Amino acid sequence: MEIDIKLLELFGLINKKIWKMVAPFLKELQMSVTDMLLLQRLAKKQSCKATELAALIGIPTSTLTGIADRLVAGGYIEREHDKEDRRSIIMRVTPKVRLIINDKKKVIGEILAEKFKSISESRKERLLEDLQCILTIMEEKEENTE
Questions:
Q1: Domain locations in the chain?
Q2: In the CATH hierarchy, which top-level class contains the domain 2-115?
Q3: Cα–Cα distance for residue pair 142/133, rounded to 1 Å
Q4: What is the pTM for the complete model shown?
Q5: Cα–Cα distance measured from residue 49 to residue 54, given in angstroms and rounded to the nearest whole number
Q6: CA gap 107, 101 in Å, rounded
Q7: Chain centroid to CA 134
């Protein structure tokens, strides 16, 4: 059990380090980490109801409304009423977001390549396999709880 806690702590620290690397990129776009999380999740889903999106990133719907207002004004997302339920709002990203996400991945990739240059390719491949294994297990657990 102790190793599981250490893994959890390590993932948290790595996640913080990655977001710290992205911070200058987000500042340049005048975006917060929450804005980028929202855009990433929405880009993966193509389109999503506002209530589902708020639940996905763990924020209240009222908070999402303010963030969405900013992102609509910035040309990052579009909102429309659900044709089946006019009370529901459907959100989707604009093509501009795909470019931003690709740029972000490129920037992070370059930074990580520089930081990881001292690690052998075989070690990186093992690490990648291990992380993929962990992700697969987590996705299986997620499916079983739905």
A1: 2-115
A2: mainly alpha
A3: 14
A4: 0.73
A5: 9
A6: 10
A7: 18
d(CA 90, CA 52): 10
Question: Which amino acid type is present at position 48?
Answer: C
Determine how many CB atoms are found less than 10 A away from the CB of residue 21: 15
DSSP letter for each residue of the chain: -HHHHHHHHHHHHHHHHHHHHHHHHHHHHT--HHHHHHHHHHHHHSEEEHHHHHHHHT--HHHHHHHHHHHHHTTSEEEEE-SS-TTSEEEEE-HHHHHHHHHHHHHHHHHHHHHTTTS-HHHHHHHHHHHHHHHHHHHHHHHHH-
pLDDT by position in tens, the chain (length 146): 698 889 889 988 988 888 888 888 888 888 888 898 889 889 988 888 888 889 988 899 899 999 999 999 999 999 988 788 777 888 999 999 888 888 888 888 888 888 889 999 999 999 999 999 988 988 886 666 65
What does the block give as tokens for 111?
Answer: 């930074």
